[in-house]
Amino acid sequence: MRFKYIFLGVLVLILAAGVAAADDYESVGDYTFDIPDGYQVADKDDVSVGMELDENHTVLVYQLDSDRDISLFKTMLETAGCQFSDEQDLKVGNFNVSQSTYKLEEAQGYFYICSDGGKHIVVADGMPASEELPAADDNPTYEVVSSLE
Q1: Can you give the CATH number for the domain in which 98 is found?
Q2: Is residue 11 a part of any domain in this protein?
Q3: Is residue 7 part of a domain?
């Protein structure tokens, strides 16, 4: 009889851990990714997820369908005054990734375009320009990019 209660207790703990783990990732289209430490989902639809640490620190994930969409997206940002710099190409998991930093008015951050030969995922973060930008591989946006599946 005692074994039955121990077994039920362990089962409840396993189920609780499964529910907690389900909150650690999010999806956009057919792609999943980890939510950065401390961030909460603030906005979500079929093609985008917005996450916030606080009102000054955000991570945005978008799914774009084509190279043309990427070009239009970057052109729109540049027209709004966004300046891209430090561009480099990386291979992260199954994705070819174009990484750059950006500045837009009083904000700055990282901007990644990830492609696996299908659709494209754009991942960007934002923080005040007055803060020091973290190392490229030690920021919440890279955490999302490196967990993309």
Answers
A1: 3.40.1000.10
A2: no
A3: no
CB atoms within 10 A of CB 148: 21
Q: Which domain holds residue 86?
A: 26-147
Q: What contacts 77, CB < 8 A, 6 or more positions away?
A: 102, 104
| Separation of alpha carbons 62 and 124, rounded Å | 9
**Residue 68 carries which side chain, given as an amino acid letter?**
R
Residue 142 resides in a domain: yes
Q: Is 109 exposed, middle or buried (0-12, 13-18, 19+ CB in 10 A)?
A: buried
pLDDT (mean) for 79-85: 90
Structural domain count, the chain: 1
Tens of pLDDT, residues 93-106: 989 999 999 998 89
Q: Is the pTM of this model over 0.85?
A: no
